[in-house]
Write a structure and sequence with these properties.
The complex is a heterodimer of chains A (about 300) and B (about 350). Chain A has helices spanning about 5-35, 40-60, 65-85, 90-110, 135-140, 145-165, 165-175, 175-180, 185-215, 225-235, 240-265, 270-290, 290-295. Chain A has a single domain (about 5-295), classed as ABC transporter involved in vitamin B12 uptake, BtuC (Orthogonal Bundle). Chain A is globular, with a radius of gyration of 20 Å. The termini of chain A are far apart. By secondary structure, chain A is an all-alpha fold. The radius of gyration of chain B is 21 Å and the shape is globular. Chain B folds into two domains: about 1-130, Response regulator (Rossmann fold, 3-Layer(aba) Sandwich), CATH 3.40.50.2300; about 130-250 and about 285-340, Rossmann fold (3-Layer(aba) Sandwich). Chain B has about 350 residues and is α/β, with parallel strands linked by helices. In chain B, about 40% of the residues lie in helices and about 20% in strands. Chain B is built from eleven helices and 15 strands. Classes of the chains: A mainly alpha (about 300), B alpha/beta (about 350).
Amino acid sequence: MIIDINFVGLIIASIMASAVPLILASCGELITERSGVLNLGVEGMMIIGAISGFALMTVTGSLIIAVFGAMLAGVLISTIFAFLTQTLITNHVATGLALTIFGIGISAMIGKNFVGIPGKEFPVLFEGLKDTIPLLGPILFGHSIVFYFAFALPFITSYFLKKTKIGLIVRAVGDSPESASNQGINVRLIRYACILYGGAMSGLAGAYLSMIYTPQWIENMTGGRGWIALALVVFSTWNPIKILIGAMIFGGLTIIQFHMQAIGVRIPVQFLTALPYIVTIIVLVVISRDSRKIRLSTPSSLGKSFHKDN
Amino acid sequence: MHKFFIRSFVSSLVLLFTFNVAAIAKDVKAAFVYIGPTGDHGWTYQHDVGRKAVEAAGFKTTYVEGVPESADAERVLRQLANSGHDVIFTTSFGYMNPTNKVAKEFPNVKFEHATGYKREHPNVSTYAARFYEGRTILGTIAGTMTKSNVIGYVASFPIPEVIRGINSFTLAAQKVNPNIKTKIVWAFTWYDPGKEAEAAKALIDQGADVIAQHTDSTAIVQIAEKAGVYAFGQASDMDKFAPKAVLTSVENNWGPYYVDRVKAVANGTWNQKDTWHGIGDGMVVISDLDSQMPADLRSKVKKLQADLASGKVHSFTGPIYDQKGNLIVAEGKTADDGMLAGMMTYVKGVEGDIPK
């Protein structure tokens, strides 16, 4: 079979587009987790971002207000999580799950009036350059600003964690909040900031789905992508660059599968749906065998509450 | 890392929390049980439009949304039957056994089950729509409008309803254009906009210039609009989501049936029935035909629509062959309802196998 080079370009471009929400939410959650907080509410924050973005776009007509509004909505809902886990010292896992349930419920409630309304077209950049270069044209050009931001984000995140002072503080807080606190770092403040940042990124990921990827509002439209994003953070062993690769693999599975179906190759769909989770478990098993590696990458106090008076 | 296994636990919790029974203000009270949220803009949404028609006719209605097809369904049905409802519509295939079980316990309550075939007690009726008639029209349009001769079809689950649709669509398309190929992609979801969009995109990338769908969201027509190919709306008129792409939609119109049945309960004329209505009875509605279609095609479609409605034309008229070339419907004969209800094989011309 002859494979057209532009066809390959189109497939890669679709895979990248499907990876965008995963990258955004994962990079946000990665920062949260690096500060030692496990927020399982990603799905809930994403769906809140999705309805907020869509609702604001419909009501105000401004895409900018909608995108930032979605991020702000993510921040607001994650504030609840931050207040509960950091100020009231509740259990991270239970609070995160509650956040997801809350997010799905409240988004459905707000969304009642926004069902069946078509979204607005989101502008794309460099549309004209798409056909100028074979293969690379469709990959590089003709995407939304959020797309480009998502692909820059893992590099920015990596630089932030490795090279900046605040990045080091975040890691210190995640590894040993007691030592960090003894050094005069306000652990609670740092964790608050990281949780809110994670909320903003999840909100943006949701807005991407409801405003750019499939411009419409439907209940439960995130379809479990928040959970995939969570799995992705573990898969990446808390390394932002690996999130990029993981998101392409996880996002690409569905698309490759659809293309194979259209060509006539059959793979059990259920297997492919489960694959991201299976791969994550395999990665966990592999990295757990190497104690040195896991110590280097995992935030040691992940999911543990920090009491200042200890 | 047990946290990722919590997903199924969470989704069941979510389902429990979303059981929001909304009682709204004649004497006859009707209840509706929905599989999805009324906000899906697809299957459940259309049933809810039907419920509103009942309400507009002056009856009290109640609905429960997001009811899983499990023991939960029985519990919900029992609760509705106990709380003074005279007729209960259960709007998903999986409610078949719970409906019959609870119907036995409440002989004075009427039960109406959508898309099922079991009527074990005199107070259970079944109803469904002949959506395949709508797909005969879509196939005719697709076969005429395609330039690449590749038609994409996003399917949901391999059940007779969906396979019947694929077959009816393909037979109609082949009739007007023997060179067409129907490429099918199974999304294994009724609605997940992201997934549906990806499936549609894959088909378009592979050369399809008309996309049909048997999933519920509007994502597919939006992708078609962006890519400059044609598409058809599902369940409701989706024209406003993709004015250039959508040529027409097949609408599910349950309202008239619901009003009829609730009135029958009120008049005491309700009897057990198995209803399977199509275009003729108005349960399947074809939206306005887009002006991009040539005038002769539009008039041809109008005539086909009238013929399907009058029964002059049947979607499955022989000779029909299966994929292996065996004659399944003889020349001049039409497929009977039993065959249609259990259709689990592709007709000749559909590519690929039915997934297990």
